[in-house]
Design brief:
Elements (H helix, E strand, L loop, with lengths): L1 H24 L12 H6 L1 E7 L2 E7 L4 E9 L5 E15 L2 E9 L10 E9 L3 E5 L5 E6 L11 E2 L2 E3 L3 E4 L11 E10 L2 E2 L9 H12 L9 H15 L7 E12 L2 H11 L22
Antiparallel strand pairs: 1-2, 1-8, 2-3, 3-4, 4-5, 5-6, 6-7, 7-8, 9-13, 10-12, 11-12, 12-14
Helix pairs in contact: 3-4
């Protein structure tokens, strides 16, 4: 009887030990991250609207940040420089879109530190209709269909170009000289952070100059015409950037017949020259060492 009881106790003890071993070895399954909503996926990208000579660009990124740029056409239909930009964070919950403004140069549109809660009335791949707090409906159009990518370890490189200045083509010898001046930033598609940097091919500059100098005044005098020029520039320069060019941001456009104005434009948008090192470190004073 005692022997039987001992065997039963040993079996019970063994079962408890085995249960503890398997129980400790089993990992609890981590909850999977909730996928982004279809509305969130549709919102990510570049949007624009144009009204009363005011052109507004809005870029919503996967990581929850946004940027908005404001540009205005002049009264003579010539394009003027952008008026400023704003940045912040955004979130969407159902049909409610919330913008928080972190920094702003256009306080009359995006007040710094303000939060804007908008209602999404309609959205698809090409447009989104938003109801603002004043009940006004505003339609934003997509600037370009984009592919969705993850944001962890992803970069959105921006390559600034040195100022582009060309003497646009004339229809007759009696036409006065007009100079098209452009300050551009090249925005590339998202690439892995550890990928080799993409550099602008030297021939890209020549290709841009050749194309822009073939234009006439009527090709560039209004914002609508310049949007067409912008798209053609994207198609032209994309092969020189490994097919990674996403968009071209026009920071400043000027059309002038004054060389003085052109020189001011170049000085304003040219990068500063590198500083020369002096003193003991390297003993470089800007003069070549005589041998």
């Amino acid at each position: 009887m005692k022997k039987t009881l001992s065997i039963v106790l040993q079996i019970s003890l063994l079962a408890i030990i085995l249960a503890n071993i398997y129980g400790c070895g089993k990992k609890e399954e981590e909850p999977e991250a909730e996928p982004e909503s279809p509305v969130h996926e549709l919102l990510v990208g570049s949007w624009n609207r144009y009204s009363n000579r005011v052109y507004t660009l809005l870029i919503l990124r996967n990581n929850g940040s946004w940027t908005s740029d404001l540009r205005i056409e002049g009264g003579n239909s010539k394009i003027v420089e952008r008026k400023g930009n704003a940045t912040g964070t955004w979130d969407v919950d159902g049909n409610t879109l919330t913008f928080t403004v972190v920094d702003s140069q256009i306080e009359n549109i995006w007040g710094k530190g303000q939060t804007y809660i908008l209602e999404i009335v309609e959205i698809d791949k090409l447009k989104v209709v938003l109801r603002y707090p004043n009940a006004r409906l505003i339609t934003w159009k997509r600037s370009r269909i984009e592919k969705n990518t993850q944001t962890e370890g992803i970069l959105n490189p921006v390559l600034p170009m040195k100022p582009l200045v060309v003497n646009i083509n004339k229809l007759s010898s009696h036409d006065k000289d007009r100079y098209l001046c452009l300050a551009l930033d090249l925005h590339l598609d998202e690439i892995p952070a550890d990928a080799p940097p993409i550099k602008l091919h030297p021939r890209a500059w020549d290709a841009a100059i050749l194309y822009l100098s073939s234009l006439i005044y009527n090709d560039v005098k209004t914002f609508d015409e310049m949007k067409i020029v912008n798209e053609k520039l994207i198609n032209l320069l994309n092969p020189y950037l490994e097919g990674k060019l996403f968009s071209i941001e026009v920071n400043h456009v000027m059309i002038s017949s004054s060389m003085e104005k052109v020189e001011e434009f170049i000085i304003e948008h040219s990068p500063p020259p590198p500083l020369e090192t002096t003193g003991e470190e390297g003993e470089n004073t800007g003069e070549e060492e005589k041998k």
